[in-house]
Specification:
The chain is 48% helix and 11% strand. By secondary structure, the protein is an alpha/beta fold. A hairpin with a 2-residue loop joins strand 4 and strand 5. The chain is globular and about 70 Å long. It starts with 22 loop residues before the first helix and ends with a helix. 43% of the residues are buried.
């Protein structure tokens, strides 16, 4: 820490820019400069370190990442073994499936009259256009049918499910029935045993699509508290844990709250995560979680230390994330998938047994 207050930093030696630079060259270039370019270089190196040290890596998704087509980039990371679990908004999961089923999504315009778009049944996410009937309502029909089938299986088994179980089934169905399964990260996650959690399920079209099923008494036995226990168990069983946070919101907090769940509530493990990278445009001074610094999380037990292992890159995830993806794909060898989806129930049972053993007298 004392070195931060002395004139001992790396000398600024203006780097060369040249034609046809590789992504590795570009990240190295950024590392010789400052501001968010240097932070992006630090983030790239940290992501590589997570992969090389066999860290259990979580990707959190907020903002409209999949409608602009980044789902396939996430799929590639999953297939290379670079992402072990995912926490996403329901919207990103919902819109990701458009591409698997070949439903129309187009580049549009941001400076438009939205009354006219509404009259033409076109919905807008900034400069992305989605068709109301051909895309959204078609997707709604597919989602409702999928969840009806999931409901039947949960009734037969009598088992409660988490949102990772719901996501697994959605991805599995899309893999079997859609025309372009390779375009969906939900499909890749299901195939590779990567659990996908949707903690804000009711704040999305997937949750909205459960209302008809609620009226029909056809809902699956969802228990959202299982999401908390499963995600905490993943951290509990991880020797090294890291995360890549795209934006903030509920996915960011849900990932980081695993530390306090173990430390503050269950009192079975202290420490939190070893590495956290966040790409965000949110400010810390407004008090919102999206802009809260990662270092602040140390006071809650969310990370191991505020001094190392964390970096925030301020800017647009849609710009920075593909650069991080390309860098680790260039620099890292594929890893064997951890297949946490198929281990999560075992992890929870072990964690539960550990907790009950330590608290035997108190429970009595």
């Amino acid at each position: 820490m004392n070195n931060k207050h002395s004139f001992t930093g790396k000398k600024i030696e203006p780097p060369d820019i040249r034609p046809n630079m590789s992504i590795s060259d570009l990240i190295s270039f950024y590392g010789c400069t400052g501001f968010n370019a240097r932070r992006l270089s630090e983030a790239a190196m940290m992501f590589k370190k997570m992969i090389d040290t066999e860290a259990t890596i979580c990707l959190t998704l907020s903002g409209a990442m999949t409608p602009i087509g980044l789902g396939k980039s996430i799929s590639t990371l999953i297939e290379k073994g670079f992402i072990d679990w995912v926490i996403t908004t329901g919207a990103n999961a919902y819109h990701d499936l458009h591409f698997a089923y070949g439903l129309p999504v187009r580049q549009g315009h941001f400076d438009v009259d939205d009354d006219i778009l509404y009259s033409k049944q076109i919905v807008r996410i900034y400069d992305i256009y989605i068709k109301e009937v051909e895309t959204l309502q078609r997707q709604d029909h597919l989602i409702q049918n999928m969840i009806r089938e999931i409901s039947k299986s949960t009734v037969e088994s009598g088992k409660e499910i988490s949102t990772s179980d719901l996501s697994y089934k959605l991805g599995e169905t899309a893999n079997n029935e859609s025309s372009f399964p390779d375009k969906s990260f939900m499909v890749s996650a299901s195939k590779q045993g990567v659990p996908v959690y949707i903690p804000s399920l009711t704040d999305s079209s997937i949750g909205m699509n459960m209302i008809p099923l609620l009226f029909e008494s056809s809902l699956p036995s969802l228990n959202l508290l299982l999401d908390i226990s499963e995600s905490a168990a993943i951290l509990w069983k991880s020797n090294i844990s890291g995360g890549i946070e795209l934006g903030g919101g509920v996915p960011k907090n849900f990932f980081q709250q695993t530390g306090p769940t173990l430390y503050q509530i269950l009192k079975i493990k202290e420490g939190g995560h070893d590495y956290v990278i966040q790409l965000t445009d949110a400010r810390p001074d407004t008090g919102g979680l999206s802009g809260a610094t990662i270092q602040e999380g140390k006071s809650w037990g969310k990370i191991k230390t505020s001094h190392t292992g964390n970096v925030i890159v301020y800017g647009d995830s849609s710009v920075y994330f593909p650069l991080l993806c390309s860098y680790v794909l260039s620099e890292c060898k594929p890893r064997k998938p951890k297949k946490l989806y198929h281990l999560k129930d075992k992890f929870v049972k072990e964690m539960k047994d550990n907790y009950l053993k330590k608290n035997k007298k108190k429970i009595r």
